[in-house]
Amino acid sequence: MPLAATLPKVQEVRERIENSGPSDIRLALMATHVLAGRVSEIVSRKSPHDNTVARGPSGTDVRLERYQVGDFDEEVAVFNLRTAKRGGRERSVALPMSEEYEPWTKELYDYFKKHGDTQVFSFTRQHLGKEAKGPLVGLRYQILDYYLIKDKVKTKVEPHSRDFALHALRHLRVAELFDHYGFEPIEAMYYAGWTFGGMFGGGSIMERYAHLNWRQYFPKLLKRRV
After folding, report:
1. Whether the Cβ atoms of residue 46 and residue 53 lie closer than 8 Å to each other
2. Are the CB atoms for 129 and 166 separated by under 8 Å?
3. 102, 124, 210, 226 — which has fewest CB within 10 A?
4. To the nearest 5 percent, what fractions of the chain are helix, strand and coil?
């Protein structure tokens, strides 16, 4: 994954999303960002010309749990997403229900539950991308140089800028996990659904279960937003 040298301010992007419409697009953008979602994990419909399988959630893919340590007791919304790259393997993303820690959780939770057994975001990634251009218009970010390997040929890609589009919402959230919440790489792996091989150069049978281990990182999310 190319590294971003600069990203827009998180608060600016969140405010743009909050002020966008219609509500189904706004909530899809909220979910893509705060759950560090790949677009295929959010939308539920596939374009006839799309090679990516859409594995978006239904309303049953969220549940309430509690995080308790001593006298501390926090209600938690746990969202289940399915990773298209690995045959729909599940990963869990936990968010505090309290608005002082994450103002978007309750609205997303209520929207999921409203859909029951039906798909939450029943549109294609192309449609979501088109609708996202309005709230994200004008935002760009810089990409550092990196190497691309194709057909065993290694090619250097020079630094360049890109429009801030859908997939960048995932990058922005991961950057926030490190910068604001103090995540360690293994915690970001659990949250974002990366593999051990992708992050550390090796694999493990534990990958089947690691991405369900939301308690590993959840205490770090109990930090008030600025």
Report:
1. yes
2. yes
3. 226
4. 40, 25, 40
